[in-house]
C-alpha cells in the first residue's frame, strides 16, 4: 500500500478501501477528462471506465496532457486507457470507443456507480444527465466556457438535475471552442474532489447548488437552486 501512504495519512485506511472498491465512468477523455483521469488514477479508484469516440488531434495538446503527439489520429479512449495502465496497474480500466446514446447507455452504465461529465457539448451533457437519472447513477457535472467554469453534483431523484438548473438551455447551442488548460484543469480537479467525497462519505457535495468559477477574477461563487417538480427529465 506504499503507493497510497499519503492518501491514507489524510483519509484513513477505511476510506482507501472504499476508493479501491469504487466504480467510476469518465464520460469524455478530452480536457476535463485528462485531469479527472490523472486524479482518479492517483487516488487509486478500483474500477475506471473511459468513454470517448474522438481521435487525438494536434489542437488537443494545449490541455489534454495524457495524450501523446505520437498518437495523433488514434482513439482518445484507448490512449487514456493505456495511460492509466502504465501509471497505475492496480486499476481495473475499460475503454469504450463509441458515442454514448439512448440505445447503448444501459449496458455501459450498469458497471459503474458514479458518472463524471467530461463531455464538451451541451447536447452530450444533457444526454448524460438523462442517462444518470434513468439509471440512478450519481452525476458529477463540470463545464467550461472561456475563462469560466461550473460544477454541480446530481443525486438522481433526490437532488436537482442539470435540467432543473437550466430549464431553458438549448442543447444545440455550441460551447466556445477557445479554452486554456488552467481553467479546464481547475474545474476537473473540483469534479474529482466531488467524486472523492461521494466515495468516502466525508464533507459536503455540490447538490442543489452550482459552484461557478471565474478564472480572470479568481472568483468562486455558490448559487443554490431547487429541484423542479415539473422537470421533464427528473420531475
Ligand atoms: Zn431535473
Q: What does this molecule look like?
A:
With 235 residues, the protein is α/β, with parallel strands linked by helices. It has a single domain, classed as 3-Layer(aba) Sandwich (Rossmann fold). Helices cover 36% and strands 20% of the residues. It contains 8 helices and 8 strands; from the N terminus they run ααβαβαβαβαββααββ. The protein has helices at 5-11, 13-21, 31-43, 76-87, 105-109, 122-135, 162-165, 181-200; strands at residues 23-27, 47-51, 92-96, 114-117, 138-145, 148-154, 209-214, 219-224. An 8-stranded mixed sheet has the order 3-2-1-4-5-6-7-8, sandwiched between helices. α1 (5-11) crosses α2. It is globular, with a radius of gyration of 17 Å. The N and C termini lie far apart (44 Å). The model has no long low-confidence stretch (mean pLDDT 96). It binds zinc ion (ZN). Zinc ion (ZN) binds at residues 160-161, 163-164, 228, 231, 233-234.
Helix/strand layout:
Blueprint: H1 5-11, H2 13-21, E1 23-27, H3 31-43, E2 47-51, H4 76-87, E3 92-96, H5 105-109, E4 114-117, H6 122-135, E5 138-145, E6 148-154, H7 162-165, H8 181-200, E7 209-214, E8 219-224
Parallel strand pairs: 1-2, 1-4, 2-3, 4-5
Antiparallel strand pairs: 5-6, 6-7, 7-8
Zinc ion is lined by residues 160-161, 163-164, 228, 231, 233-234.
